[in-house]
Amino acid sequence: MASIVSIASPSLSAEISATGAELVRLRDSTGADLLWDGDPAFWTGRSPLLFPMVGRARGDRIMVAGQPYDMGQHGFARTSTFALVRSDAASCTWRLDASEATRQRYPFAFRLDVTYRIDDATLHMEAEVMNTDAVVMPASFGFHPALRWPLPYGKPRSEHEIVFERAEPAPIRRPVEGLLSAVQFPTPVRDRHLLLNDGLFEDGALIFDTLASRSLVYGEAIRVDFPRMPHLGIWTKPGAGYVCIEPWQGYASPEGFDGDFADKPGMVPVAPGATETFAMSISVER
Fold first, then answer.
1. Closest-CA residue to 267 (of 48, 49, 52)
2. Average pLDDT over residues 238-255
């Protein structure tokens, strides 16, 4: 089985790993890298997939029907080995099925299919979460792509910004020991613009749990669309050469939350036999 699959169009190319079904390389038509390289001096991730949980649970443990289960930050999909279901020149689909190992952390039967497809200068990413169990299955899902900061188009790092589709006046949240802060913070977005600087991230990620936009433009060159993802994280480690633009369904447990996993804010109840779809796209606009 292939451990890395390459897909491409004349305008864009990508590589996806069997480990986590993770996007590990994204290049434009000139061969310039748009995705972080995973330098361990800062962060080894590149574009992990977050399932069945976004963020962290208190004590890295979830409760399901009164039983505790160990669950690390962002779930287990990102470290799992996916099977390649199909691939062609411009697309590939990867699959993770529930197993004895996943049931020890998440006691549900599921199938997770992740498809990557390049159409001209756009990379589409779609995840289908199917409940193959006989009971309602709570789940959340998130994307976590780390884009180069600065992008390889000559503009200084200090001049990179994110421009949101809509005004974002709602307060944001911050992580507190990995959990969602009870305190709200004033939005750093001004007239739809977020000028990036390391100081924004000294206290961790910016968490938009009340988000108006479903698309944005980064660095005047990259458009990110996430039509059905209602939450967003923006994160880097100060000084690193990337910024993560993370469309989410769900987020970390609020401070003090000890309830059932199904009651964790942002979870989606997936009915037996039903499928929930989560999607985003990255487009090069230059």
1. 52
2. 97
Model confidence pLDDT, tens digit, residues 220-243:
999 999 999 999 999 999 999 999
What is the per-residue pLDDT for 1?
58
Quick one: tokens of 27? 């290049």
Sequence-distant (6+) residues with CB within 8 A of 216 are: 162, 163, 164, 165, 223, 224, 245
Tell which residue, 125, 147, 116, has the closest CA to residue 28. Answer: 147
DSSP 177: T
Residue located via tokens 């939350």: 257
Per-residue DSSP letter, 18: T
Residues 6+ apart with CB under 8 A from 263: none
* CA dist 229 → 157, 193, 275, 280 (Å): 28, 20, 16, 8
pTM of the full structure: 0.97
Report how far residue 197's alpha carbon sits from residue 161's, in angstroms, rounded to the nearest whole number: 9
Q: How far apart are CA 181 and CA 126, in angstroms?
A: 29
Q: How far apart are CA 89 and CA 14, in angstroms?
A: 11
